[in-house]
Amino acid sequence: MEEPQKTGKWKKNKELGKGGQGVVYLAVNTGIIDYAELQKAIEYLANYQYKTAIDTEHYATKLVNFMKEVDNPNNYGALKVLHKPQEGREYTLAQERIKREIEVMQKLRHPNFIKIVDTDSSVNPKWFVSKYYSKGTLSDNKGAFAGKLLTSLKAFRPIVEAVAELHKQKMVHRDIKPENVFIDQNNNLVLGDFGLIFFADEEHSRLSGTFENVGSRDWMPMWAMGRKIEDIKPTFDVFSLGKLLWAMISETPKLTAHYFKDDDYPLFNLEKMFSDKPEMKLANELFQKCIVEREKNCLSDASALLKEVDETISTVASHTNVIGKDISQKCKICGVGTYENFNIKGESIRIPARSSNGEGSNLQIFACNHCGNAQLFNKIPETWKRTN
Prior knowledge:
This protein has 388 residues and is an alpha+beta fold.
């Protein structure tokens, strides 16, 4: 029995994906297998003559253990192999990028960044192995977070925290999208693919053309297209992170540009997609700070975004009533009914009052249409349901 062809100690199992730099394979770690012993076991069990019960049990156990090791998910990895020079475009640049990718993955320590398992030890590495996630990526699990704002935010937060650490080290990921976010066995999100990483410090030479659009067009901000590569800022990642969260909640493949709340694109608006969930207004308020048309309106980096995410999580988790002209207010007592204008003989009851700033104010009584709980409100949205 011949030892299978492999890269290092990793045997290619099947192709997982292909890009400009190289090919990614599902690979098994053959370093765990003693092929001489395996061959001996197979030859012994194939020979029906002169067997003893002890030897048969011994070699059968070896064969069973071998099969267990082959099926063990921990023995698999994602093997990225650089294209051969004649197959790849701009081979030298790709070789530098894969070297850079290995450098970054070895340096990063956040648990929500993908881990490197093995590397080509040569001066110009042509392959490396990262941890393999059998559950796939967010793009493979589109329905996992659909319509679940709080669940999405809690899963999304560690990714933002990880990117914040990246930004503190003066790096910009530039390729954040569902295809690059993996799901581990505990359903935690893990960010991978650092092939387009950009270093903002002067110690690293840039690996892209002066005006090259590096990144996935559907996930990058319009204001970054055609920009000099040295002008790339953490805002690039903040924009992409916002789109990532939108995709998790919407279960939609992609959001066109920044039109999450554009009247011409109502199908992209979470408040309209999930009209029975007032909390989606809070999601849109968060998007207004990252999925923006102009960079000046974008949060400066992932640390700033993390603060906003934490505030939104706190608000949603506390079940605070979301205020909006198109949102009926749920009763604070029973949680079933909604508040309606309370009137006597068709006349609303208004109570003159003075606000904290000393200005006059007219308070109105609203009552729950289910349990009757009454509350005083001021500045009532015109679209709230009212009784005649």
